[in-house]
Amino acid sequence: MKHVSKAYILSIVICMLSMYGYSQAPTISKKDEVFIRAEQMPEYETGKEQLGKDIADCVVYPKKAIELGISGTVVVKCVINTNGEACNPVVVKPVHELLDKAAIDVIPCLGCFKPGVQGGVPVSVYFYIPIQFQIPK
Prior knowledge:
The structure is a single chain. By secondary structure, this protein is α+β, with helices and mostly antiparallel strands. Helix content is about 30%, strand content about 30%. The strands form 2 sheets. Strands 1, 3, 4, 6 and 7 form a 5-stranded mixed beta sheet that branches. A two-stranded antiparallel ribbon has the order 2-5. Strand 6 and strand 7 (about 120-135) form a beta hairpin. The chain is elongated, with a radius of gyration of 18 Å. The model is unreliable at about 1-30 (pLDDT under 50).
């Protein structure tokens, strides 16, 4: 059997987790548990296209960021709770503090989601939302 280094295995595991997350056990041990992945992931009630439109309608590009020429995509992780509300936003891929704050401010403006489902029961699930800031031409 070929010897594989621990660093190589760790890098593969990290890569897989970053691309796919991992599945939680189908049993729900705590009511307030937040799943990384569920059998049925949350979905924006009015669809992905409308989610993009709602983000675009809610986002406020900071004037200072435009003046400084700052642009990019901020990724926000939030929890879609069992009521379908997006809450507890955290920036996981920052660009600049001005854009990061503007991205966080979008989350409360979003409409309702269909909650994630695990074992036939609605569960809270982490959800990643990329918010793009592009300087208007």
